[in-house]
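User: Reverse transcriptase zinc-binding domain-containing protein, Iris pallida:
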Amino acid sequence: MCVKEFGEAAATAIRVSGMVISDSPDSFDWRPGPNGHFTLESTWQVARIVCFRDVAAYQVWSPCITLKWSILVWRVLQDKLPTDEAIKRIGFHNVSKCYCCIASTEESIGHILYQGETTVKVWAEFEGRMAIHLRSSRLMDRLCSWWSGPNAHLRQVLIAVIIWVLWKNRNKAIYEENKAILKSL
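Assistant: Predicted structure for Reverse transcriptase zinc-binding domain-containing protein:
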């Protein structure tokens, strides 16, 4: 049946993929919801594939985290913070300098929150205390390492607090012109 409808190449690709093919007719997988009723929502829950965005959303919008922290972490994940890099992306070119570091590095979300010389030390301190061993410098890898493991609620809150404090200190360094704040981190 598959060969007639899709051709030999498609049939071979399906066989190689390990997908189970049967000659039995398709059937519905329609299960009742918690209330015992059959709904589209209950079927969607059975059929959907939970992807990382769902996991990230669950972690970011946790009831353990205050709303303003959740919004900030969400904006970080969406790359929607007003950094020099973001301003340059919309067409305004300016001299970019990270106010958190001694070296004159271009300001970006990555640099401010997880790759800069100050922030690397902050993350390393907490990761050491939480026994998190990280080999990557990418934010998503860091968050996945934090979200998986023991003390999940504590880790959720701690991620938000670290990002919040780093962002607030960046803003103080810029708008209050106080570089000493970052040394106290």
